[in-house]
Amino acid sequence: MTKLRTMFLLLVLTALQLSAQGDDTTFGVFRQKEYYFSNSFKLNWFKAVEYCRSRGMFLLSVRNAEEREAIIEYLDSTGYTKTHKSLMAWMSANDLGEEGEFHWASTGERVNYQNWSETEPNDYKIDDCTGEDCAILEYWSEGGANYNYTFNDRSCAREYLFIFGFISTQKDINTFGIFREKSYYFGNTFKLNWFKAVEYCRSRGMFLVSINNDEQLNGVIEHIEKSGYTKTHDVLHMWTS
Ligand SMILES: *[C@@H]1O[C@H](CO)[C@@H](O)[C@H](O)[C@H]1NC(C)=O
Ligand SMILES: *[C@@H]1O[C@H](CO)[C@@H](O)[C@H](O)[C@H]1NC(C)=O
């Protein structure tokens, strides 16, 4: 059933971010490792992703020891753990695209730096059909080394605090370098499920296409028609973001 649903999709279209003011800002503060922490409200994982993107930022990724130290330092500076016994906040890691294969949604990269809490990730089944596919960063003041800003998979539908910021990768510099050209890429020979399509695009410093006005729609149509795809196919189904 799940398999059927995830294989339904057809084509991937990637596009550079079209015209978000927020992305110019992203670029400007790129090296400062600024973080933001929603310390007063909670969202489910999907809404947290949207919240961050709508501000030109990305849900947290902790890809190595330095990034872990940086986020700990930031969270300490907020004072949150002085007044709370625990902290649980969404990061961008998830295995929605393929069970057991965790990737950072914000960068498309596989989760290679494994800093899971003991016995995690366990895809704990809350009921017969819901597992845990999205990851939080967790800290418990009485948990010792095992809950010391470590990772834990949780149900994506649950609401947690979340942490977000800008992304510092070479790829993003490239993205911004050609930011205004409105280049599109069309995955016209292979299909992915939506989550994997998002990762595919992000791992190339790009984004699944957004179509928010006629101009954007026309740009996409023009690109598709140039590719000749609709001359040889009767139907075109492709993912948008
Ligand atoms: C998490 O990473 C830190 C620093 O690299 C390490 O000291 C710690 O043992 C790791 N914890 C787990 C549970 O992997
Ligand atoms: C938690 O991690 C921080 C940063 O890596 C480290 O300084 C501290 O000793 C760790 N605490 C425990 C209880 O392992």
Q: Can you give a write-up of this model?
A:
The structure is a single chain. The chain has 241 residues and is of the alpha+beta class. It folds into two domains: 31-170, Mannose-Binding Protein A, subunit A (Mannose-Binding Protein A, Chain A); 181-231, no CATH class. Helix content is 31%, strand content 19%. The chain is built from nine helices and ten strands. It has helices at residues 2-6, 21-28, 45-53, 65-78, 80-83, 170-177, 194-202, 214-227, 229-232; strands at 12-15, 35-37, 58-59, 86-94, 103-104, 134-140, 148-154, 161-165, 184-187, 207-208. Strands 2, 3, 4, 5, 6, 7 and 8 form a seven-stranded mixed β-sheet that branches. A three-stranded antiparallel β-sheet has the order 9-1-10, sandwiched between helices. β6 (134-140) and β7 form a beta hairpin. The longest helix is centred in the first third of the chain and has 14 residues, at 65-78. It is elongated and about 65 Å long. The relative contact order is 0.23. The model is unreliable at 1-32 and 170-181 (pLDDT under 50). The structure holds 2-acetamido-2-deoxy-beta-D-glucopyranose (NAG) (2 copies).
